[in-house]
Amino acid sequence: MKRFGLVDCHCFYVSAERLFRPELLGKPVVALSNNDGCAVSRSDEAKALGVKMGQPHFELRDLIERKGLICVSSNYALYQDLSNRVMNVLRREAPLTEVYSIDESWLDLTGIPDRELEAFGRHLRDVVYREVGIPVGVGISTTKSLTKMANWASKRWKSKTGAVVDLVDPLKQEKLLRFADVGEVWGIGRQLNKRLQLMNINKAWDLATFDKKTIRRHFNINVEKTARELSGEYCYGLEEDVTPKQMIACTRSFSQRVTTQDGLRSAISTFVGNASRKLRTQNQYAACVQVFIRTSPFDTNGMPYARSVSIPLAYPSFDTRDLLEAALAGLQQIFVEGPKYAKAGVILSQFFDPGMFTDDLFAPPKRKNSEQLMAVLDRINLIHGRGVVRFASEPAAAPWSLKQQLLGKNYTTRWEDVMRVNA
Prior knowledge:
Strand order of the largest sheet: 5-6-1-7-8
Helix content: 25-40%
Largest sheet: 5 strands, mixed
Low-confidence stretches: none
Mean pLDDT: 89
Order of helices and strands: EHEEHHEHEEHEHHEHHHHHEHEEHEH
Shape: globular
CATH topology of the domain at 248-384: Dna Ligase, domain 1
Number of helices: 15
CATH class of the domain at 248-384: Alpha Beta
Radius of gyration: 25 Å
Number of strands: 12
Structural class: alpha+beta
């Protein structure tokens, strides 16, 4: 029988902030999304004040003034570094892992005796907190769907369970599934929840015991598999190998409107630089570059405008220079004077593995030493920080960059931000 674990960082963004700012402990804290738009991570104290996930920042002003709610800008460099540290600990402790998101990881615990599973879950919780400082919850069961339910229970009854729930026992499974609403089941979104309720499937137990063929007929095979997993049937395994992306998009809403072609050129150049770096990370070549620009649909006074264009390359490439040349040519085609642009982006597609494409005899000659130059560029930026070496059209600091007025320091990824302790 399979045994799975799911380790989930508790209020991850807020926990990461508290790790280096202990004055935030015990206080209501919210981490905000891009451009400080809305709440994307909430401490337990913030939840107790009624802050909802996705609630706009401007709606929180009353709680900030009257209840002492603290808002911080999302610090993605810090969060990703701490996530990497958590995942490295889990890889060391478990034989097989699957990183599910920045703050979650599946573990294959098959082979550990059932009587030792809960103790192992507590060991994982303690070792992550001791070595990284991030509190986690651990769910354990026989299928991924049941393990997700166990993890949900570890958060709902955190003080009672110690944030570790072992749901291997079928009697415990039934008890939890009879209590949990079907909307708490992994993969059951709001619309699916409404449709299930029309069939009188209100609890997770109702879904687990419903006729599986009927579920598939009314929904799809994924919902059927979820129902089977809730009833104890193994359907989903760990995905150890990460499939390379077939499309890479770098897009951004601007913190302030951009009206000039030069302003858009600098934005597009930055996006191409980021996208090409990701492309090289998965060792693939792109044959098509798509560029888009648009105004905000909420700007009622401005001139509405939205255009995109796809530029095929003469040959697949991961050289930033080739991709940049195509992207800026595309921008030249679609840019018009007048609109106040709110968003732009670059999308790379039509990927090829090395050696899996035939060169065009009539295409312009390739750049010499392209792979070696890009490798040196990536290596320098990896060691000294992204953007140390960049192309001339990429700005060092852009006025359209993310609005992060409440941003903390990059305590673990920038030398000047490393905390100093006086002897």
